[in-house]
Amino acid sequence: MHIGILGGMMDPIHIGHMNAARAALRAGMDTVLIAPCQAPAHRAAPVASAEARVDMCRLAAAKENKIKVSTVDLREGPCYTADTIRILQDQYPGAELWWIIGADKLPTLPCWRDKEYLFAHCGFLVCPRTFSDVSIQVPDARIRILDAEAITASSGQVVAALHTYHDAADLLPHDVSRYIALHGLYQPDYTSALSRFGLSGSRVQHTLGVRETAVDLADRFGARMQAAAVAAMLHDIAKAMPLTEMQDVVSRWDLALPDEILKSGNLLHGPAGAAIAEHELGVLDPEILSAIACHTVGKPGMSKLEKILFIADAIEPNRRPYPGLEELRQLVQTDLDAAVLASMRRTREYVLSKGGRFCTITEAAMQELAAQKEENA
Asked: The CATH number of the domain where 163 resides is what?
């Protein structure tokens, strides 16, 4: 039996890793083990937890019959390859083991710990990497160059894309990108920020429910899942503030808002939250900020992300039951615009039944959505 082992932090696992694993299978491996490590001896600690990295690896390998995930390297202390090979020899007696590396690691092999043992008991499958020389000779090491396209992806590139709220579709398996959005990985700790701004435990649970729903809808309707997740986490950041504090926030940043918004805490917490997200939490993505600002009242010309946050806030799983909730949850599965319009109409009906005045901005948004619906009928 020939076993390939792909080690590393997998922080996160990306398409370069998966392409290397598939190339190893084409080269004759019977199976490939993806082995995320606890803490490499020569690098800083990973960002994501071991549990999260294992989950992401399993998602990436879920549809691959011959690619498995191993937790062999998730042990205390530095992880040296020679130690891992010793453990795998016990787990797979008689198997021929091959460690998969990128070509950039080839010149470092003579410096690897316990190399004599390692070279005697393990071969190396080398995956080409851009600007790396695959012709380097390493005495005593068994080396095979994989027939594969040069790896161009890196975890650093992936994290950089995630920091700009993009899903890195060309770098990440889709289910891994979705997992990252659902769990807020590689973003600031916004859950702690919610507590700092006075949100109660139940409000935090609501926020997490909105994130779950918004990511699901972004996936369904082709919006940025990372952006939906961040907008959801921060949509109620100002919710616990007294109205006067919200007014101070929007005044401080010279936001021009109509009186019907300025005089209502229920309506003002959106624009105030967007200002906090931008100026205090460093979120600069204009679509995320706009989605936070209009998540309660909507607006004409709403983007897909803005509609997603608007309806996710209304239907997230922790919402107390209200008339029409289940109908909205069913409707949004197939028609985002129709669900947003139905939610706005339900809110208008409720506000008017209580003798209140309905927001003119929402009314304008409803008219636009209704006209578009009629036009597309």
From this structure: 1.10.3210.10
Q: Could you give the CA distance from residue 38 to residue 17 in angstroms, rounded to a whole number?
A: 17
Q: Are residues 176 and 70 in the same domain?
A: no
Q: What does each of the 377 residues of the chain score in pLDDT, given as a tens digit?
A: 999 999 999 999 999 999 999 999 999 999 999 999 986 656 678 899 999 999 999 999 999 999 999 999 998 877 899 999 999 999 999 999 999 999 999 999 999 999 999 999 999 999 998 878 888 889 999 999 998 887 778 889 999 999 999 999 999 999 999 999 999 999 999 999 999 999 999 999 999 999 999 999 999 999 999 999 999 999 999 999 999 999 999 999 999 999 999 999 999 999 999 999 999 999 999 999 999 999 999 999 999 999 999 999 999 999 999 999 999 999 999 999 999 999 999 999 999 998 999 999 999 999 999 999 888 87
- 184 and 239 assigned to the same domain: yes
Count how many domains the chain has: 2
Spatial CB neighbours of 296, under 8 Å, sequence gap ≥ 6: 266, 267, 269, 270, 310, 313
Are the C-beta atoms of 238 and 249 separated by less than 8 Å?
yes
Same structural domain for residues 371 and 316?
A: yes
Q: Which domain holds residue 367?
A: 159-376
Choose one of 133, 152, 171: the last residue of a domain: 152
Q: Is the pTM of this model over 0.70?
A: yes
Choose among 64, 5, 2, 60: nearest CA to 37. 5
